[in-house]
Each structure stands twice: as structure tokens, then as C-alpha cells.
Amino acid sequence: MHNDSRFLKACRREPVDATPVWLMRQAGRYMAAYRALREKYTILELIHSPELACEVTMQPIQAFDLDAAIIFADILPPLAAMGLELDFVRGEGPVLYNPVRSPADVERLQVHPPEEKLSFTLDAIRLVRQELAGRGTPLIGFSGAPFTLAAYAIEGGGSRHYAKAKQFMMAEPDAWHALMTKLSQMVGQYLLAQAHAGAQALQVFDSWVGHLSPADYRNYVMPYTRQAIEMARQADVPVIHFGTDTNGMLELLRDAGGDVIGVDWRIELDTAWQRLGDGVAIQGNLDPVALFAPWPEVEKRAQHVLDQANGRPGHIFNLGHGILPETPVDTVKRLVDFVHEYSIRQGVR
Amino acid sequence: MHNDSRFLKACRREPVDATPVWLMRQAGRYMAAYRALREKYTILELIHSPELACEVTMQPIQAFDLDAAIIFADILPPLAAMGLELDFVRGEGPVLYNPVRSPADVERLQVHPPEEKLSFTLDAIRLVRQELAGRGTPLIGFSGAPFTLAAYAIEGGGSRHYAKAKQFMMAEPDAWHALMTKLSQMVGQYLLAQAHAGAQALQVFDSWVGHLSPADYRNYVMPYTRQAIEMARQADVPVIHFGTDTNGMLELLRDAGGDVIGVDWRIELDTAWQRLGDGVAIQGNLDPVALFAPWPEVEKRAQHVLDQANGRPGHIFNLGHGILPETPVDTVKRLVDFVHEYSIRQGVR
Predict the structure, then answer these.
(1) pTM, two decimal places
(2) Domain parsing of chain B, residue ranges
(3) DSSP A158
(4) Potential cystine with A60: which of A26, A312, B168, B234 (Cβ 3.0-4.6 Å)?
(5) Cα separation of B153 and B300, whole Å?
(6) CATH number of this structure's domain B27-63+68-124+137-262, picked from the four choices 3.20.20.210, 3.40.50.40, 3.40.50.1000, 2.60.120.200
(7) Could you give the ipTM of this predicted complex?
(8) Cβ–Cβ of B247/A266 closer than 8 Å?
(9) What is the least distance, in Å, from the CA of B290 to any CA of chain A?
């Protein structure tokens, strides 16, 4: 069960020998091996093939001393499973060709069992677990959170102001709540299925939730995130609840659930932890752009994060958001090793 | 001197008869009169002509019962004054054709007296003050803050991650500090000159500062914002210090200076004020997207902001960022009137 891994211990706020570290989007374009595969396959082809998804998942595990693998997938396939036409367009990112713009669009969305519509990721999880069996490295499954999925579903892609999504929320509250109910079921079932397939931790990415006011989060989002997380926790694996720009409502995010709260670099880790209290572990929070600095500066910044955590049990070192495509690979390797070395010197508990 | 206006009283945290309200970018594309002028003139032509800038400044004042005017200009002309080639490209926003990418580029930038290089805005301020003389509406001058100007100068325009700006900061700290020194002088002198020309309050827009970690803000930005604000305050007019995504470092922003701190909608106004303390007034914080809602929902949200302020002296109602181009004009009119009516009913102090 690999229950004695640093990463899973830290999720449970148990003492560890060194601070565990993994990086959001650790399987990605900054690695030559990934770029080589992307010359042959689209993102969706990589996700839809369990063998390729397994291969990509393993790339950073083979290259760096990471404490967790995360299944190669995307936050958006649950939307495809519900009936939205998802594609990734070069230079534009994700696109949904039939976005949700009316109550009738919400009605058409269907919550399908993930075993039917998202089996490729569940199969990939099974393959990766076999690959990882000898190493003892735990595997993280994940999904977009209901709000972030709703935002993409309504906008039809990325957005600067999320004006369409918020407008739908304000002007069509019944349809909004119906949409969020379906999304929370889909996300909850998908996360649970990933745990049943072998994922030993689950991360909920509420990447865009920081565009909301705290009041809107409480009224229109929080109950659905909570439902999804509660369903996922039936599997008895730790849940990481991640968002960015959430420093005006960190306590609400915590109250929506999660054993671990992911915070971005816009707050001192120590301040965030004080606000969140001792009941949760914390993941973060180096600025992804910090990895573009000369190494001594990267080291100083990584050390600052570790000093903020101050060896308290329950810190998982990560970036505050996904690693950027142009990040120097050598810096990633040195960072991962430095987190272990420094936290051992520091006397992590 | 219009020192008895609601807006200036609120800046000084004195009791008012009703909560003052103005809107960032209140002279803008959501108004037909502005769009009509933009069909004939570019943004730079409007800014560079004191007569046209005066006309645009007055458009929202004539249409709505606003408690302050803000001079029509942009946050970036100080960069043009220093030697960067500024343009506004349709659909792309501001562009700087010769961005700062090396220490030599920083050396080439020159701090010119605003009376020489930015006289068009100073002249526009003089014209607007004449126009406003009969009304008693105070006029706000403004500038981009040193960091936001540096970010634009280095990126050459808007950016998603501000990777180039942060990379320059980390890799070329001496050049960064030299750049920020020049920017703080330029901004400080420009703000002071606007006050001398007749601006009765000054706003510093640090629009992108929320992309920084608190530690980076403290080390690389805060001293320069403080210098610029201190120079501006020689004129003895209130300074509004505005940023977005700043909820992880709100106290640092306050400590950098400003009689009024502008907060976005990502935090409850009451929570923000508790963190900032009684020593400052507060401006904000309705989500600009809220104005796209049906009116009863807009009213509910405006009321929520006013209830959070709870009639305490020192609240200036505003959006949490600039008004969006597609905002319905009728909603703006109703919002401005509602803020006055409700705060009178509420018994603002």
C-alpha cells in the first residue's frame, strides 16, 4: 500500500524523514522526452491511450527523485464525459466546441459512470501502479473542481474575466445550481473511480476559483466542491484541494474539504498555515517563474518556502501552480534534490 | 478647494452624508459618447490632446451622479516619457516596441520632468478643473506604480505569467533596482505635478503587483512604491493605493503608503478593513462582472459591499478593477444612485 511513503505521511501530517516534493504538471513540455512524444501524438491521444499516458506519467519519475507521480490526464475530460466536445488547440489551450449557454444546455449534460466514459485514465492508473510497484512512489489521481469545470464549460475555453460564467451564475441561478450538481456528481464519481483503480491520493484543481468573491464562492460553489470531495473521500485516500488567488477566502476553501490545502506563492506559507490551522496539511508554494532564476536564487527561494514550513509535519513542497513549459530541466532536478537535502539538514519532523 | 466633497472627506475618514462612489475606467468604451470619439481618434490622440482628454473625462460626470472625476489618461505614459515607444494596438492593448531587456536598456531610460514630457495630461487637468468648478466634483490624477510600469516595460505589453519581468528581477537585481529607482522618481514627480496642476487626489495603480510573492514585494518593490507615494504626498492631497490579487500581502501594501487602500472583490471588504486597521480608508470592491447581472442581483451585491463597510467613515465605493467595455450603461446609472440612496438609508457616518 506504500502507506509509509513520505508523501502519504505528509498528507496525514505524520512525521517524515525529508519533506516530500512533486510538481504540478511535472509531466510536461519542459521535458525533452515529453516534447518528443508530442511530436507524434496530440494531447488527447496521449490522454486516451493508457500505455502512452503511463509512459508520460513515468517520465519525470525516471528523471527526478520525486515523491509522488500524478497520472497524466487533464482537468477537463469529465466535461467530455458529460457531452461537451473537448479539444486542445495549439497556442490556444483547451476548447469546448459546444459550450453551456442556456438551461437547456445544462439539461443535456449527462453524468455517465467514469468506468464507461473515462476508462482510459482508470486503465492508465492501473498500468502506472504496476510500473511504480518496485519504487514505492505513490500515485495521485485528479480532476478539475466543479467551479473550474463550469467556468470552462460556459466560457468554451480559457478566459480573462470569466464574464460569461459569472453572468450565467447570476442570471440563471437555477440552471447554475443544476449544472454544479451534475458536475459535483461527475467529479466525485471520477475521483472515487480513480482511487478504486489504484490512485493513492486525489487532487481537486479549482484553478480559477480565485476569480470569485468569497460570498459567491460560499453561495454558488462551496457546497458542490464539498459534495465532490466527500464522495472522493469514501475511498479513504487523502484529498488535496488546490486553488490559486484564494487568499481572500482560504478558510472557506479549507471548510469545503481536503486533507491538504494547496496554496499559491501569493501568500507566505507560514501565514497561510496559521490561517488554515493545524487540522490540514499544506502543499506549495514556490512561484513557478522562480525556476527561471540562476540556481543560487532558486535555492534561496526554495529555502524560504522550507523555512516558512519550519519542519512542521504536513508540508508537501510544490510550486504554487503548474510548471511552465520553458523551465530548465537541470533546475528541476536540483530543486527536487535540494528540498530533500535541506529539509533533512533543517530537521524536518 | 472642494475640501468638503464626500469623496475627499472619505479619503480623510471623515463623516459623510452618503458613501461616495466613482468607478475605475469610468470614462470608457461602455459609454456611447466615448465610442463615438474613439471612431475618430486613437487612444493616444485622446490622451495627447488636453481638450479631448477633458471632454472624455467629463463624459461620465455628465451622465452619472459620480462623486469624483478621474483624468482621462493611461497608466503607461510615464514609460513613454522615459524613452519607451508606447502604442495601443486594437485587440492587443498596450505595446512597448523597445522593451527593457538588459542593464544597458535601463541606463538609457531617462527621468524627464513631467512638465516637459507629460504636459498634455497636466494641461488636461487644468481644463477639467475649470469644467468642474461649478459642480464641486473633485478630480483624481493617477499613474501606474513602479512595479506595474516595470512589468510592462520588460514584457513589452500585457502578460500572463510576467515571466520576463520576474526573470529580470531575479537575474539582474542591480539593473532591477536601478530601473525601479528611476520609475519611482518618474512616478513620484508625475503624481506631484498632477497635484500641482490641480488634481485633488492621486491614485497609484499597481495593477499587476498581485503576481508577486509577499517576499518579492517586500524586497524588490515596496521601497520604490513608498518613495513614489512619499513624493506625491508632498502636495498634501490624499493618495489611493490600488492593486489586485493582493490578499496575501495586504498589510505590506498598506505599509508602502496611501491614505486609501483599493481592494478587489476577492476579499470581503470587512475582512480587508480589519486587516488594514483603522489608519486607512478603503476603496472598493464590487466585482466588475457583477454589473452584467439583472438589476435586482446588482443591487443585492452593491448592498453587500455597503453592508460590509457598515457605514464606517472612510469607505469609497468602487469596483474591484476597471469597468468592462460591454457593461450596460443603465446599470451603471442605477448603481451610482443606489450607493447614495442605500448608504443614506443605512445611516453612513
Answers:
(1) 0.96
(2) 1-23+277-349, 27-63+68-124+137-262
(3) -
(4) A26
(5) 40
(6) 3.20.20.210
(7) 0.95
(8) yes
(9) 8
